[in-house]
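QUALITY CONTROL LOG
STEP: pairwise intake check
CHECKER ROLE: data steward
CRITERIA: each record must contain a sequence immediately followed by its structure tokens, with no blank fields

ENTRY 1 OF 2
RESULT FIELD BELOW
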Amino acid sequence: MAYRGGTGVRFDLSQAIDAYNRTARGPGEAPMTQRRLAELVGTTEAMVSRHATGRVSPGSESLIRYTRVVRCGIEELFSDTPTMPSMA
């Protein structure tokens, strides 16, 4: 779900989607899903999933597109919450 850099800050797309669904979407507007986000950002659902899970770090253009679609600041796409190591 997250990019883990040396600073402990991680990319957290699900946090931004959740915030959008709680506050930014208009009346009668469907909740944001990864499929819908991919369509609006101009990428594939698979790439959104890779970004959301941390398998691929989004580039600056993707970050800007995400902020425009989910109506948030770029800092809201990152979290400094520690993550648990994967048990996979």
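ENTRY 2 OF 2
RESULT FIELD BELOW
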Amino acid sequence: MRKPSRAVSEDSDDLRPEYRLDYSKARPNPYAAHLKDKAVAVVLDAEVAAAFPTSESVNIALRAVMVESRSSRKPGVASRGSNDQQRTRPAPAKKPRR
């Protein structure tokens, strides 16, 4: 005979006992400083990920695109990311709260 399944209420915010953590014992990650600004995660579409089996192959392809885009630029034309010729608009004034 099967045991009746326990019904879990949908509005229950309680965690199971094995997932309750004692944060008073938490410590800072000693390796976090070494990893800072070294890795970036990007989510690829399934068909793109299928075309590139490794992260190294993705990096090689992107570097080739970067080299090609640099060589195809016309001299004297600023790129969109150039900070020296970007114009910025002032932030709109905030309306006072009532």
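INTAKE CHECK: passed for both entries
DESCRIPTIVE NOTE, ENTRY 2: The two ends are 66 Å apart (CA to CA).
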